[in-house]
Amino acid sequence: MNKVNLLIVSGVAGAGKTTLASVCEEHGFYVVEDFPSKTLPALLTVFENDPSTYGQAAMFVNISVAAEIIAEARKNPAFQVTAIGLDCSIEVLLNRFRLTRHIHPLQPRNYTLMEALQMDEEAMKKCRSVFDVYIDTSNLTEKDLRKMAARLIEKDTGKKPISVVFSSFGYKYGLPRDAEIVIDARILANPYWVKELAALTGRDQAVIDYIDKDPKTQPLLNSLYQFLDEYLRWSIDDGRSFVFIDVGCSGGQHRSVYVAEHLYNHFKDDYNCSVTHRELSRYVEDEKE
What we know:
- There is one protein chain.
- This protein is of the alpha/beta class.
- The chain has 2 domains: about 5-155, Rossmann fold, CATH 3.40.50; about 165-289.
- The chain is about 40% helix and about 20% strand.
- It is built from 10 helices and 9 strands.
- It has helices at about 15-25, 40-50, 50-55, 65-75, 90-100, 115-125, 140-155, 205-210, 215-235, 255-265; strands at about 5-10, 30-35, 55-60, 80-85, 135, 165-170, 180-185, 240-250, 270-275.
- A 5-stranded parallel β-sheet has the order 2-3-1-4-5, with helices on both faces.
- The longest helix is centred in the last third of the chain and has 21 residues, at about 215-235.
- It is globular.
């Protein structure tokens, strides 16, 4: 009997659960949000008994009960459980709540917004280890999150046994909090110091041509291809479903974008790959949406 594909999503308020729920619905998942944890056994029974209707289901649960619900669901052999945790820095969340004029679910219980966000932060620290995938949305646009979520929840084909997310970032804006493998592209020639290239990005052909000419570029890429070929095979053997690979340079504009795009293009036919660029909204107007 085929297992029910059960996605369990939790995270701090304001980190993007609503966006992820929308993506799940678009991909045919039956979505359940904010249900009482005591009803979990009954809900799982409904899913298990009617796989034609609930063969793909997504539960969105409060961070305070996430660990409990994930552990309980994983005990049931009828389900293939994937747990996703969404996090975000308090500084970014404060701005999001102020811009949207939404209230935190704890505020009606007489907590200030800051107190509520700090409580969420502590709850995430306690349960972060239970998630198969941890995503920090602090520097992601809604478009980036939707793209990443779509790739993560798409059903694998036979030749794509693992999902790989490539991302670029700028060191001067801080390491990604959800980083797993970090590659430093600052060893390559920096287009920023070339006047006509400074305002472009690693996706522009003039910048690509410039970095291509650096004698260190191809050896670096070849070494990364070889290393990641082995690493991804080992990850599959270890039963992993997701791998995050972050590429950094000084500002996240040129070299890291170039390398992340090359890694994505190299591996996209073999694995379920996506690529995002954390800092591009700082440099390209179209990326702000």
